[in-house]
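Submission sheet (multi-component)
Chains listed below:
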Amino acid sequence: MTTALSTPENRTAVPAHTGSRFSRVLGAVVALGLGLVAVLGLLISPADEVQGDAARIMYVHVPSAIVAYLAFGVTALGSALYLWRRSDFWDATAAASAEIGVVFTSLTLVTGMLWGKPTWGTYWEWDPRLTTTALLLILFLGYLAVRGIAAERKVRARRSAIAGLVAFVDVPLVHYSVDWWRSLHQKATITRLSPTISGIMLFTLMSGIFVFIGLYLWLLIHRFRVQYLEDELAEGGLAEAIAERRREAGVAV
Amino acid sequence: MDDAAFVIGAYLAVSVGLGAYVVRLLTRGRKLSRQVPEGRRRWM
Amino acid sequence: MWRDARLVAGKDLRVEWRSRVALNQIVPFAIVVLLLFAFALDPDRGFLRRAAPGLYWVAVLLSALVVIQRSFAAETVDGGRDGLRVIGLDPAAIFLGKALAASAVLLLLEVVLAAGVMLLYGADFGSAFILVVVTCLLATAGVVAPGMIYGALASGVRVRETLLPLLFLPAVAPVMIGATRSFEAAINHSPAEGWRWCGLLGVFAVAYTALGLAVFEPLLEDS
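Outcome: structure written.
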């Protein structure tokens, strides 16, 4: 394979970025949606009867948590399908989703702690969900560490797929064990709003969830393309180097 | 607003966190796109 | 498959017995961990005895980490891993055999550690003996099964010393929680509570053993 790296001609011919028409439209919708959620959550929705204004944090915390779990679900799905189909598509999907999942898990923890301080009086309480989320973050940092090991593409994909599956099996087990452990002395768990959440508050929460899922999709598209480019580059670079050595040795390419 | 610092802080953390990630992702994409030849960027 | 598994287990145990690393290095290491806990928590105020179940299982997990590293160190030198595959052993049997051998070593360590905790910390695990034994067996299976998967995953990688603890320790968090609560129940004479935790430990062990049997084949493919 003889592939020249970018020349001035093709650099100008095609816009060099990871956007496409679909991703631009989606991005615009999501950007508007995020603005809407901020206005709804901070200004329009009323304070919660029990938790007061701190409940406003829920409108970003709950969607972050849902997207975090969704992202790890997609990573596990991509891992399983990679082992079955051995297609680079699923490997790249799993890789892209895991990184986004780590971002949202971190945001879930930060917003959870900022909610905990005014509500519980401490930043960290051994709340079952918060504890599970913290372990989830470490499990998937481990997954990214496996991805980060330099190896041949197939070896790396296989290793990562196994690591992704093994970590995913752990999630329900961690959840149950932490839940049983903490149910001995239970306090208001983090997602609990007033029993009758309705009207504008429910609408705000639901739109937050939808907008964040849209944001996840937008990020996934871009991150997937970055992954694709990185893999292409690594492979192209290798082919290039081999061709070069062959030319040096005077072997016909 | 009660606990304004925590509420604003949480929204700020989310915006800054996501914003930084988006910027990093897009610049990474641009940098890589310039290095990979046009024929192999299929979504264009 | 059982024959292959016994073969691998026998080989691992023989290697372990001849080198005496478990006896001469891992056992002293585990005892040092027990001493360190005593230095950290004042023995005179009863902290040690109350925290004994948790400290015991932390010591077990740290020792397990060393056992797992040993189990795969033997395979990475001189291409032992490829050797196992070339012989034509079933990957699932390799998993099972290595897991059995590692479990045997770990159980031995657990007996030593239990004696140490009872002697040094004054904890009494004897009151619900059957519960304690069952907890140890299930927890050992639950620690060793993911340990073998991650051990094989990290073996042959340059960063294995740091990668293995990062992958292994958070994954066995449910075992740590379950086994500790079960031991506490045994000490507090409320075994019913402990059996519930044994259920969780059992599910964990079965899930990871099944996963290990399924996943060892792609794991041992050309590396």
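Remark: Chain A touches chain B through 46 residues (CB under 8 Å).
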